[in-house]
TrEMBL record:
Class in the EC hierarchy, top level: transferase
Taxonomic source organism: Rubrobacter tropicus
Gene: aroF
Keyword entries, A-Z: Transferase
Database matches in InterPro entries: Aldolase_TIM (IPR013785), Class-I_DAHP_synthase (IPR052899), DAHP1/KDSA (IPR006218), DAHP_syn_2 (IPR006268)
BP GO terms, sorted: aromatic amino acid family biosynthetic process
Gene3D superfamilies: Aldolase class I
The keyword Transferase belongs to this UniProt entry's keyword annotation: yes
Record-listed E.C. numbers: 2.5.1.54
Protein name: 3-deoxy-7-phosphoheptulonate synthase
Length: 265
């Protein structure tokens, strides 16, 4: 199938969601660990000048013995804190059963890399957000082609949920220096094939914080429409993905670091 003939061109740009030509940064911890942890991390996101905070309540962990997230309690913490700070919440939904609940607490529903090809979840989310102000952030699958990724997005848009943002988060390769391999060519190719905004998550791609800022700059140069970066007020103590989390000082400096590259910020 020729993907270029199937993609949407009438992307909704209202609703406060990430819009093409307007660079947006989503930042925040991998997961919500407690009220105090999320407040501290979210305040840094606000201070850094960003309007979207992320946090996981339902976590797709590799091991069933790792911390799985706080579930509904985590959602409540996020919506309360974000409401007080005037931030919008981005969080992952893994189970169709939780869609309505997540929509009560978040403006953007994330579909994780491991669920990119969960077509029944994609359809249910598409139908649920249709006609609402909610958006969807669709991560690229760990080994998905650009075509598979775009067609996955169309499972959402075909149900009427047309406020979809694609997110490149690294793919599996033979390389072990990084957790995954950030595929910036996919960003450029996807942007040629679809009008959906394409953002980059350098944190999960790299798996190490020293590469997050350089890869963010490269993403801007590749004309990504935004970034999703993990940050934590105390990365050493993070329950999940601390090694890739930007500490507060680095988050506060991110806008400045990117400003020579991102005119629209
Ligand atoms: C995340 O953003 O928290 C996450 C688990 O990402 P991914 O699905 O890309 O691994
Ligand atoms: Mn993470």
């Amino acid at each position: 199938m020729d993907v270029s003939q199937t993609v949407k061109t009438d992307v909704k740009t209202q609703n406060g969601m990430i819009r093409p030509n307007t660079f947006r940064v989503i930042a925040g911890p991998c997961t919500v660990e407690s009220y105090d942890q999320f407040v501290a991390s979210a305040k840094a996101v606000k201070e850094a000048g960003f309007e979207y905070v992320r946090g996981g309540a339902f976590k797709p962990r590799t091991s069933p013995y790792s911390f799985q997230g706080l579930g509904e309690e985590g959602l409540k913490i996020m919506s309360e804190v974000a409401g007080e700070l005037g931030l919008k919440v981005v969080t992952e939904v893994m189970d169709p059963y939780d869609i309505e609940l997540v929509m009560e607490h978040a403006q953007v529903l994330q579909i994780g890399a491991r669920n990119m090809a969960n077509f029944s979840l994609l359809k249910r989310i598409g139908a649920a957000i249709a006609g609402t102000d909610h958006g969807v952030l669709l991560k690229r699958g760990l080994s998905a082609t650009v075509q598979e990724w775009i067609l996955a997005a169309e499972y959402v848009t075909a149900e009427g949920g047309d406020n979809v943002v694609l997110c490149e988060r690294g793919i599996r390769t033979f390389e072990t220096a990084t957790r995954f391999t950030l595929d910036l060519s996919a960003v450029i190719v996807a942007k040629r094939l679809t009008d959906l905004p394409v953002i980059v998550d350098p944190s999960h791609a790299a798996g190490r914080r020293d590469l997050v800022v350089p890869l963010s700059k490269a993403s801007v140069a590749a004309e990504a429409d935004g970034l999703m970066v993990e940050s934590h007020h105390d990365p050493q103590e993070a329950l999940c993905d601390g090694e890739q989390a930007l500490p507060v000082e680095a988050l506060l400096g991110l806008k400045e670091e990117l400003s020579p590259f991102a005119g629209a910020m």
